[in-house]
Amino acid sequence: MNILLSNDDGYFAPGLAELAQALAGLGDIVVVAPEQNRSGASNSLTLDRPLFLKKAANGFHFVNGTPTDCVHLAVTGMLDRLPDIIVSGINNGANMGDDTIYSGTVAAATEGFLLGIPSIAISLTSFEGKNFESAGRVARELVERFIRDPMKEAVLLNVNVPDIPYAELKGMEVTRLGRRHKAEPVVRMVSPRSETVYWVGAAGAAADAGPGTDFNAVERGCVSITPLQIDLTHTAQLPAVRHWIK
């Protein structure tokens, strides 16, 4: 197995180190991650400057770009052989509901999926980050399952693991994305230089969090596994827009 790892928290993040350790022995592992924390970078590609690929003392490679840059560079320019699977994470914080649109963790996996490679984004659902080992064990179980029984087509899985000890997890549940309420307003402040600055506000609370959603599964202590797709076409609106255009 050729396994490519990436993330959006940076090559120095503890979640990435835990992921590499958890998957050790399952195949040839290569890590290509951002040089800095690029949380919220979404699916952005760097087109206004060159990218540099460097190797850290721990053997991880890092790129002066986004999570998408890392996977794109690795797959299309760095590696001699295509990865059999790409795993992005372990993110420090949940990526559920609308968060997936902004997530760099999910974006790294999405780039792999767009390149035809089965990809998994895995997140620990707390910023406290107490139980990365739990998420690491879940990641290993999923990759082992993929080795035993590969999916017949490339998949993009968004996995969220409750931040609790592994023994307390209530199993795995296949879910759909929930929805959040509108985000909080930006926070306006004055800098020490008397400049007005703004911080992006906190994400809204869960709105659609009923049975079957990722929010609901995690709340009950289950690992949430959501298969994602990339087609953004609003199919149901096609007839209405055709009529409007006429």
* Largest beta sheet: strand ordering: 3-4-2-1-5-6-7-13-8
Mean pLDDT: 91
Q: Rg, please?
A: 19 Å
Helix content: 25-40%
Distance between the termini: 53 Å
Separate helix tally: 7
Give a short account of the largest sheet: 9 strands, mixed
Class inferred from helices and paired strands: alpha/beta
Oligomeric state of the chains present here: single chain
Tell me what portion of residues adopts beta-strand conformation.
15-25%
Shape: globular
What order do the SSEs take from the amino end to the carboxyl end, as H and E? EHEEEHEHHEHEEEEEEHEH
> How many distinct beta strands?
13
Q: List unreliable stretches of 5+ residues.
A: none
Give the topology.
Layout: E1 2-6, H1 14-23, E2 28-34, E3 53-55, E4 61-63, H2 67-78, E5 85-92, H3 99-102, H4 104-114, E6 119-124, H5 132-148, E7 156-161, E8 172-174, E9 179-180, E10 187-190, E11 196-199, E12 206-208, H6 214-219, E13 223-227, H7 238-245
Parallel strand pairs: 1-2, 1-5, 2-4, 5-6, 6-7, 8-13
Antiparallel strand pairs: 3-4, 7-13, 9-12, 10-11
Q: Can you offer a commentary on this structure?
A:
The longest helix has 17 residues, at 132-148. The radius of gyration is 19 Å and the shape is globular. It has helices spanning 14-23, 67-78, 99-102, 104-114, 132-148, 214-219, 238-245; strands at residues 2-6, 28-34, 53-55, 61-63, 85-92, 119-124, 156-161, 172-174, 179-180, 187-190, 196-199, 206-208, 223-227. A hairpin with a 5-residue loop joins strand 10 (187-190) and strand 11. The chain contains seven helices and 13 strands. Helices cover 28% and strands 24% of the residues. The strands form three sheets. It has a nine-stranded mixed β-sheet. With 246 residues, the chain is an alpha/beta fold.
